TrEMBL record:
UniProt-listed SUPFAM superfamilies: Thiolase-like
Name of this protein: Acetyl-CoA C-acetyltransferase
Organism: Actinomadura darangshiensis
UniProt GO molecular function: acetyl-CoA C-acetyltransferase activity
Signal peptide: none
Keyword terms of this UniProt record: Acyltransferase, Transferase
Top-level EC class: transferase
Record-stated family: Belongs to the thiolase-like superfamily. Thiolase family.
Amino acid sequence: MAEAYIVGAVRTPVGTKKGALKDVHPADLGAHVLKELINRTGADPAAVEDVITGCVMQVGPQSLDIARTAWLSAGLPDTVPGVTIDRQCGSSQQAIHFAAQGVLSGTQDLVVASGIEQMAIVPMGSSVAMAMEKGMPFPYGEGWAERYGMQEISQFRGAELMAEKWGFTREDLEKFALESHQRAAKAIEAGYFDREIAPIAGLSKDEGARPDTTMEKMAGLKTLREDGVITAAVASQISVGASALLIASEEAVKRHNLTPRARIHTLAVCGSDPVYMLTGPIPATEKALDRAGLKIGDIDVFEVNEAFAPVPMAWAHDTGASLDKTNPNGGAIALGHPLGATGGVLMTKLLHELERTGGRYGLQTMCEGGGQANATIIERI
């Protein structure tokens, strides 16, 4: 049976909107992790068969196939192609899936999966601005309107709907957010992320964690909606970052003398309610576990993207997963969410945490625009 191995995983530190990375061109962000990935693994860059890059806002400096632009900006062989994909927030997790599927199918042996998002330069929503300027009620077309009506579809409304359905109070959400910051601050202080980060622009640590935040400070923030429970404190941060992983076949491992660190055990992707939008990680996790023949208790570490606090909270409630094992070093509420790069960032964190703790299985999942979710199970070697 064919296997797909992770032989390298690296990321930039995740920067804040006004932080050290705010002026770095997205192609240079991507180039940085690509060069570091090749250097750390010792792989022959000319042997890479494709570069698959997740990026959500593919306009301006992130347009014209940023996968190819970043690879060439890194000074790497121009014989290697690149393709940029968009599965919303799960874009670089889907890049990992596509890379693994190429290897598992036997049609490729060495593939890079990466992610880039420069939210300080290319703001969230940039890719829909043209439609809005032309008076198109994005994302609706006639077929959509007939099916779902002309109601608001947004991640913010989805988060409110989830909090209401699962009965989470504002205090519940803020307690979760506080824990995320505390875990992140502890991990940064202990150096847990140092091995996985490639410093850039003088930045070597994630910028977003707020070790001095308190319940009182969060309680003073205004809710995003009148009578709502979601505030900026319980949402992921606007961020800047890039990530890259090298996926190899068994043949490539032998031929290029690479060291496998984990195998891609199981891949799953699913659709879910596009109005709630953010509930997909629940069925995606169930699908992945069923396909893997594993139970929730078999997983040693979970990475569940903290787009909003209700997402991992509802996920843990419905799957029975332990929150102690979930985002053990903090999540996107504290560490940020550079959209298209986040899937690779989380997988890089997951791999290194399994190595640090000696765990066997890790599961990653994240909610995605349109009501979708990827779930990936890896097994440490």
